[in-house]
Automatic annotation (TrEMBL):
Topology term for the membrane: Multi-pass membrane protein
Lineage: Bacteria, Pseudomonadati, Pseudomonadota, Betaproteobacteria, Burkholderiales
A Pfam match: MFS_1
Residue span, Major facilitator superfamily (MFS) profile domain: 12-459
Name of this chain's protein: Multidrug transporter subunit MdtD
Subcellular location: Cell membrane
Originating organism: Comamonas terrigena
Amino acid sequence: MSESLAPHRERLLWLVAIAFFLQSLDATILNTALPAMAQSLGQSPLKMQSVIVAYSLTTAMLIPASGWVADRFGTQRVYATAIALFVLGSVLCALSPNLGFLVAARVVQGVGGALMMPVGRLAVLRSHPKGEFIRAMSFIAIPGQVGALLGPTLGGALVEVASWHWIFWINVPVGLFGMWATRRWMPVGAEQPRRSFDGWGYALLSFGMVAVSVALDGLSGMGLGTALVAVLMVFGLASLAAYWMHALRVPEPLFPPALFSVRSLRVGLLGNLFARFGSGAAPFLIPLLLQVGLGMSPFHAGLMMLATVVGSMLVKRIAVRTVQRYGYRRVLQVNSVLLGLVLASFGLVSPQQPLGLLLAQLFVFGGINSMQFSAMNSVTLKDVEGEFASSGNSLLSMVQMLSMGMGVALAGALLGGFSDVWSALGDQSLRAIHATFATVGLMTLASTLVFSQLDGDERVRPAPDSGD
């Protein structure tokens, strides 16, 4: 690319960075506001997980189709439409009169979010030489970290100063600027060769993910009967199995079965799935512990959660050296145990506990969680090359969002079940939160068994992670 186009490449980086900022801010600002939203909508704060699950599941569903959609309609058009849908979803969220409307609005937001980040990365990949791509991705990840840093405290402040509706209204001016900048700065892109899309495979995979996730969410008492939950789970698993058999016999499946011949990718994907059942539930559970269990204000809880962000950012700087020294298998085995233990330790938090000790717990959790994400993401993709690189990246992104949504759904189901057990006690909310933390910590230990399947001598430098 000529030097005269360099300023346009730089503006494109800032434009894609907007998507990273919007998504990380939206995710972290929402968690702190959930208890206030529950009170406003007449819901139990322990049963608000559907707001998070709806977004995560929608994003996971659409990620496999994002590359084909961008090739079919053009990166500029799709990116602008994605931001518009995200803004529309934000407006609908802010206007929501009840939980059902809010969940539907989050689905609209999820459609936009599912296209924003993958299509943005694709535009950067196509406009930057290979040697500059890693630097470009590192640059656009910084606003995502800023969004994660601002989110918890800003969410708490907005809830106290104004109302929870403003955590969605603030997306509107940023999104409108992003739409304008997309038309001005994002290249239309060269015509891409038409390629077929495995629509039947996509339908099987999407239905399977939705059915299993909704069944898990139904366990928390969202209005689904036990029989319907069981039926959804069976049909969901059957649909996923049917997708796998379908992929084995069609020439161009969504995810080629040969992709799974890469050992590190198989282990990394399964490890991501099980590890995120616990770590994915934590951003939902920690604000409940702080506000519902310990009685903190939203702003105070947001300030406390900054400790997790600081711990995460500090550990990212030593993640590469740690894996280089000890290898992926040892790091992930030990770190998975530590992650499970620190999650379970939140089950011991009490109102009498010194504030400094709680801050230390949050800081340590942020650091261990960051190490887990960095190592998991990089080991999954480190051996995926050539024609499988794009599919492997999309598959990892899908599993990340799916497992996070499933983790929150499981946490909601556990909260509902434990709340019923202690319903006769005055402090059942704190007891239920304690028991849920202990259970998700125990479930996280399962990922240790998966990561033990890695080769013991792998010490390759981790690739830049996706902003986790």
